[in-house]
Specification:
Rossmann fold
Length: 358
């Protein structure tokens, strides 16, 4: 049995936050008690099950000396085997007390500033090989930088009645062909490009009305709605809002599109594959490490609405059997490279490898 403390300073609900939730729960299920240190205003607080112990610290900024002192004191009291921090703020505030035998692992899911935030950790995990290469280029010791990917859960079963109710709520025709997209509505996620690309497509595919379903929220929500109106596609774009349970929305989709201009990994791609949807993505950093064009998905140019529209048309032109083949190849990629058992085993092996003689 290995004990660990996991520290997250975010107050949003992005990819790192979801992975934090999944890994803490998975370690707990595997018999390794894990304590979650989060902000009181974090949505993670409501999503962790009651059997996961939580401690709430302000972590109001990278300079929050009170939270740093509280965290150091907590580590000294609990004497965990491992302290794992997520992203810059939590890592900067994580300092081990004198005499602690804990291993501090910093987990990075992006190309973050290293100096002032990460160098004091004992080891670093990147969730893509490209992020690991970036850390080495920034001067972190190669022998202490490790690649461990993310995992996404198996989707729950969705009943036909639940889907009928959701279709009616969203105003989707029963026979509509649904392009599904998901994410925070900020510039780097590329939803402006997606709307412009969608407006270039014919309104029907194979005799079915073509609609765009977008789940998520963010600073661009109102401006994107106005863009859809200006492009003349407002009646065919359906906004689902922020959803913690996205499974029924994936179940409504016929294809999944990731239009991101910047995406270090692309958890949404893994989730779409887990739901057995064919995936089309722009050539962002994460997608290029996950997708093989024409094999387990399709790739489109970055920040290029015309190029994205062309790739979407290519996806729509495929037969049902060809799209099914892409979806099954994607699902096989998740099962082979991003399964919960493999990822948890990799973290446990890393902890055990680095603990002796650190």
């Amino acid at each position: 049995m290995l004990s660990s403390i996991h520290v997250l300073g975010s107050h949003q609900l992005g990819g790192a936050d979801w992975f934090f939730i999944r890994l803490v729960q998975a370690l707990h299920r595997a018999g390794h008690p894990s304590l979650a240190v989060i902000r009181a205003d974090s949505p993670v607080r409501q999503l962790l099950p009651p059997d996961i112990e939580q401690v709430h610290l302000p972590m109001a900024s990278k300079w929050d000396l009170y939270s740093r002192w509280r965290l150091t004191r907590l580590i000294g009291q609990r004497q965990p085997d491992v302290v794992q921090s997520y992203m810059g703020r939590a890592t900067r505030l994580t300092r081990l007390p004198a005499g602690s035998h804990a291993l501090h692992v910093a987990r990075l899911g992006g190309y973050y500033k290293i100096d002032g935030y990460y160098r004091h950790a004992h080891a670093w995990v990147g969730n893509t090989q490209d992020i690991c290469d970036f850390m080495v280029k920034e001067g972190l010791p190669r022998e202490r930088v490790f690649y461990i990917g993310n995992f996404v859960p198996e989707p729950r079963a969705v009943s036909a009645e639940e889907l009928r109710t959701l279709r009616a709520h969203l105003g989707l025709a029963d026979h509509a062909f649904v392009i599904f997209a998901l994410g925070r509505m900020v510039v780097k996620k590329g939803f402006q490009d997606l709307l412009e690309a969608f407006a270039r497509l014919e309104p029907r595919v194979g005799g079915r009305p073509l609609v765009l379903l977008i789940a998520g929220d963010g600073a661009q929500r109102e401006s994107l709605s106005e863009t859809a109106r200006q492009l003349g596609v407002a009646s065919r774009v359906h906004w689902a809002g922020w959803q913690n349970d996205t499974t029924p929305y994936f179940a409504l989709g016929d294809v999944f599109v990731c239009p991101s201009r910047h995406e270090p990994l692309g958890n949404v791609i893994l989730e779409a594959w887990q739901h057995r949807l064919p995936v089309l993505s722009t050539r962002n950093e994460g997608a290029q490490s996950l997708l093989r064009d024409g094999d387990n998905g399709l790739l489109a140019p970055l920040a290029d609405p015309a190029g994205l529209a062309e790739a979407m048309q290519r996806m729509l032109a495929l037969s049902d059997a060809e799209r099914h083949r892409l979806a099954e190849a994607g699902h096989a990629t998740v099962q082979r490279e991003h399964h919960e058992d493999a990822v948890v085993a990799a973290y446990l092996a890393l902890y055990e490898k680095l603990r002796p003689g650190r």
